[in-house]
Amino acid sequence: MDRVALRGLKARGHHGVFPKEREEGQTFVVDLVLGLDTRPAAADDDLAKTVHYGIVAEEVVAVVEGEPVDLIETLAERIAQACLKHDMVQEVEVCVHKPDAPITVAFDDVTVTITRSRV
User: In terms of pTM, does the model score above 0.90?
Assistant: First the structure.
């Protein structure tokens, strides 16, 4: 299976279990790896035979900016389901970064990574 990756998609969301997170929001960063067969698109040089990663990027940002959830696990699942709505996408790896998570010790990042497929 071939891979199309989008790295570092940034959007502001109001996800989290604490009231401050819901009220003020924070930046979330999303990395995607879409699994699909790119051979038909490459053979015909035809965008209609692959996934339009610009549209996927817009849809992912809309999910992050959309309805708040408590857990980034839930956010990752919603993003994965949005990606799998594209017919050509057979599987997706979603990594949601929460670099401003409310943690009381020094840290660089918090991530949740999931893989979902049509199978």
Answer: yes
